[in-house]
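Contributing new records

If you add data, match the layout below exactly. Sequence lines come first and carry their own label; structure lines follow with theirs. Keep one chain per record. Anything else will be rejected by the validation script.
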Amino acid sequence: MLKHEISELHCLLGTGLMFQRFFFAPIPHTLRAMTSNAPRFLVRHIGNMGDHVFFIPPVLESLKRHYPGCNITLVTAWGYKQTQRRLVLGPKYERWGERNQGGFCISLMMTDPNVDQLVHWHDTKTSLTGDICVEEGKHFPTWSAEHYASVKELGEYDKVFELDFGIGHDDDPIQKMYEAVGLPDEDFSNYRLYLTDEDREVAAAVMRDVPRPRIVLLEGLAGTTTRGWDPAKIAALEQYITEVYGAAPRWFGGAHIPEYEGRPLTLRENIATLELCDIGIGVLSGPLHFAAAVGLPTITLYADMSLHRTAPAYFLNEYIDDPVKRHRTIIGPPATPQTMLKSPEPPTVLTAAETREQGYENWTAPGDQSKKGGLAVLTVDEIMSVVADMMPTT
C-alpha cells in the first residue's frame, strides 16, 4: 500500500467511519461514496430489540430508495443497558455498551445491505480500531457519547437523524420515524431481517428432526409483568397443544437457545429456526417481532395499546398476500385510560375488595397474575381456537 493510501485509510479510521479488522471489503465503497455527490447520512438509534426489526429496516430501505447511492452510517447498541449498574447504583447509573441478548442490535444490523458503516455505541468508551465490539469475528468501531458529539460537530454528514425519542400512546411510531428523517409522506413498513445462507443452514440442521406441527411459544408470553400473559396458564396451553397435535410446543428466546455442534446458536441462527415453524404465540415483544419478520404466522395476545403500535406488522400488514400466512391478534379488555401495559395503578375493573387483594405495586410487580391486566384474562381455549384456524392443512 502506498504512503498516501495509508494516510487516507488512517483518516477514515480517525473519524470512526468504518473499521472491521481483517474485513476490508466495504472500505472501497466508503471511499467511492465520500468522493461522489450522493448524500451521507448519520443515523443513531440505540433503542430496543423490537425497534430494530419493526422500525429501522424499512426506514433505512426508504432512505436508499429516495436517495439513490446515499451512504448510511448507523450507530446502534450491542445489547440492553447494563442492568448490574442499575441494581447496585440505581437507574441513573445505567450504561449502554456491554454485549448481551445475543449482541443485538449489532448482530441484526450487520447483515442489512442498507447499512454502509455500522458503529457500536458505548456511553463512555471509544475504540476506532474495533477492539471493543467484535461480533462473529468482525470488528466494529465504538463511539462514546463524547466522540459521537465530536463527529457531528465536524459536519461531514449531510444529515444527522437521531431516532431515539419517546413514542406517545397515540403516536403512529413508523410515521414519527419517517417525519424524523424528512420523509413525512412515506408509509413503507414492510419490515424484515436479513439472515444469511449460513444462518439458515445451521437452523435447518437443528430443526431437521423436530416433529410437526411446530408451534412456538415466544419468550415474554410467560412474563410476570403486566406485559406478559398469566404464567399459571402456560402449562395448560402446553398440555393442550401436545394432546391435540401430538407434538409439544417449542420455546423461543434468550433462555431457550439450541446448540449446534457443541455451541449455542447465534441470535440470527436462532431466529432462522422460526422460518421452519408453523405458528408462533406471544405477546408484544422482541421475539414476536422476530417471528413476524421472518414470515412465521403469529398469534398476538394484545391489550391496553393503540392499534398504531403494531398495525403495519400484525393487524394490517398489506405485504402479506397469502391468507394462510396472515397474523392473528386476540385483543383483551382495554384499560381506562390506556397505558401501554405499564399502568402505575391496578386494573380499574377490579372491585374494591379485589384491588385490596391484588397486591399491585407497579407494572413490574402487579401481584395476582390472573387479574393483573387485560392480557391475563385471555383463555387457553381462545388461543386454541385461533390455532386451529391457522393450522396448515398439508
